[in-house]
Design a protein that fits this description.
By secondary structure, this protein is mainly α. It has helices spanning 3-18, 37-58, 65-96, 113-134, 141-173, 195-202; strands spanning 107-108, 177-178. The protein has a two-stranded parallel ribbon. The termini are far apart. This is DUF4254 domain-containing protein. Pfam families: DUF4254 (PF14063). InterPro entries: DUF4254.
């Protein structure tokens, strides 16, 4: 089983586990051993899955404004955790390939391994939920047909993205691509970088 096959299996296990309760307040129960890549991938997708449903809830037009604000801040915090974990995954791969010497003509990829994995995790969620719609008995035949067509596209994207990630890993291992990791430098959660936050602090 190659890397993306493993990741896809782990992502889908996380999604299935979450939907046993289908509650954004459910605490993660990671089944994989500490310090394994599978454990990290499971945690990554769990964050994505919870956030997926938070995004659904906040779009309720009748939501209480106070609850919406609480959810918005919860989503912001989730985004920060998601970014931190993506960067952790990149660091994991950076350590894995630390003894690889890139060739002089090695290229630099525009997207790191972990951010491509992030896309694969979200894609697993899209496939799961589009599958539900494609086969939802209470939906119209037209709705199911439209969703089935979209599902086919998503599955093609999964195949293409998986191939691309595996090729990138091979290119790094062979020294054809130089792995570099850049921090996202998120500013909106940082009290020293967000003007709204630090100006408020100066007014006290």
């Amino acid at each position: 089983m190659n890397f993306t096959e493993t990741a896809w299996k782990v992502f889908n296990q996380s999604i299935e586990d979450y939907h046993m309760s289908d509650d954004v307040n459910t605490l993660i129960n990671n089944p994989f051993e500490k310090d394994t890549l599978e454990r990290i991938l499971y945690a990554k997708n769990w964050i994505d899955t919870v956030q997926w449903h938070l995004e659904d809830i906040i779009r309720d037009e009748n939501i209480d404004p106070a609850e919406a604000l609480y959810l918005k801040r919860t989503i912001d915090a989730s985004n920060q955790k998601r970014t931190d974990l993506v960067e952790f995954i990149d660091s994991w791969f950076l350590n894995k390939f630390e003894n690889i010497t890139p060739k002089p003509e090695a290229k630099i990829n525009t997207e790191t391994i972990a951010w491509a994995v992030d896309r694969l995790s979200i894609l697993a969620l899209k496939v799961y939920h589009m599958s539900l719609e494609a086969y939802r008995e209470s939906a119209s035949e037209e709705h199911r047909a439209n969703c089935k067509a979209k599902l086919d596209v998503l599955l093609t994207q999964q195949e293409d993205l998986s191939t691309s990630i595996n090729q990138l890993l091979t290119d790094i291992e062979n020294g054809n691509v130089k792995m570099k990791v850049y921090k996202q430098m998120k500013m909106y959660n940082d009290e020293s970088l967000n003007p709204i936050l630090y100006q408020k602090g100066q007014q006290k």
